[in-house]
Amino acid sequence: MNRSALEYAAPLLRAMLLTLAALPPLYVFLAIQYSAITVPFWDHAELIRWLDSWSEGSFQYSSLWAPHNHTRPLVYRIVMVFNALLTDWDIRSEYIYVYLALYGTIACHVWALRRITAGAVRGTVLPLAVLLVSLVVFSPVGHNNHWWSMMFQLNAANLFIALGMLLPFVGPQDWRNHVGAAVSCWLATFTLTNGFFAVFALALVFQLSAGRWQRPSARSLFWGINLAALLGCYLPGIAMSSGTAQPTMWQLAEFCLAYLGAPLGGLLWFPFRSMFHVSTSTATNALFGVLLLVSFAALSWHARSRLRQQHPAALILIGFCIFAIVSAIATGWARAAFDESGAAAGNSSRYTIFGAYLLLGQLYYVAAGYAHGWWNNARSLRIAAIGTVVFVCLCVVTYGRAVKVYRDAHRFNMTLSNAYAWGDQATPQDRFIYPNPGFVARLKRDLQRLELGPYNGRAFDREMPPVGEFRKAGLLSGRRKVAQRLTATKAGLKAVIVRLVTPNGRRTAGMVEWQVTEVGADRPLARGTLNAARIKDWEEVRLKLPYLGDSKGREYQLVLSAGAHDAQALGVALYEPASDGDAALIVSEESGASKTESLTMALHMDYTR
To answer: Partner of 59 for a Cys bridge, out of 53, 236, 591, 592, CB 3.0 to 4.6 A?
Structure first.
């Protein structure tokens, strides 16, 4: 009777645990939908320089490789820049990639947990382990990596690192796993520097697990070569000096302990009061960091024979924990004395994504131990059951308390959105976009001109002044430019549309430069370049301007010219004026002399509604 009742209850318990394990991913999905920053903010706004250069035709793919501080975020830039070009920088679309990284990471962990618990003597171990790992991976302690799409960089690196480490640890004898993992680790490294630490951990673990640890094994040699190749590709051109004071050993130790303890300490009692809050005290997280290091040492001693056998659980335990410790040291060396936060910066939300590997490695090993009966005594089982229930309950409380942070991010996003009003006037909210007022002014002007991000999808009224019959194509060359004055009839001039033609009706090469200047002003309002190879015969090209709220009645001049070495790169369609009062066209000839012709371009103008 009792046996059949247990047999009936076991599937229900497994189903209940798996249902609970699905709640943290759902929680984060809803949290991101509610709290996501949907306008350019802080360092993420620096993408504008790639979007601007693409618009001007001066984009260089090599610029994606350029270093930023101590990193080469190539993968991040490729995804973010080309997604922005495809969506007119609709930042909401960037969270698709955040979701893919988050859910891809948990998929890697579920796959690995299934492999290391296969043939378990207790059927509830796998769903229970999946629940615990899900609570850690989607922990709101890492909320900063949820509500800001720039943190795709960390989430993507986390996915590549998890895949890159789990593949060879779960199947160490299969060289295909090592090759696939190497590709993933290279992608991780060129997303964030922490990919280096994963490769280092892999090389060290496979050397420690070799038959003779004093001699390089084939696998440790493979990962050592990968590490050397990465360093050779990555480091040239990167300034190794951060320009900040180096931390003392005490500061570094305090930072590292807080870094390593924050994922667990924050889950047991949520420490954040708002989205930007970072606790100035490291005592609690440092204590949990010490406890996790002690438990890691104890489990490592228990796993020493299994490590020599290259048991997947032992490899994951040692590899994950080495990765977390090295990440803590490297981050602390750069950040523990970076600003007034000092060692307390180790409490930062964003760092928990890699500090969590110290906890995850131990969860894997303990799950494998209970799955395969390494700890069979009743006392051990009771302690594990009670500890798990208490941990899950405290996590539920933390997930509930974290709602206030996502609510704060939602309000902050509304404040940021209000800062992106049409116009070139500064607003009190500009300081939230970026601390440099000059950068904010340029950012808003460029976004308005290119109609990107918060200025995308606005409605316009188009004015089409009449013209007479077509007369000729004014071909541009290195010494000939065409200029025409125009008068805005409304406020809010946003774009000028000009009709271009190609010689003999065929596409041609070369670059055409344009600029719009208010008559009497020294500096142009907007300028850019057009790639003639992309323009068809009789195509209308829209030249975007910054928002001109006071344009009504003002006179502007449009100038089109070719590059110095371009011969007849493109032409502009010229017409008879519709009336004698229309502005005359000014053409500069090769001789350098200017002449005025009684012809006009067919210019259309867009005004913001």
So the answer is: 53
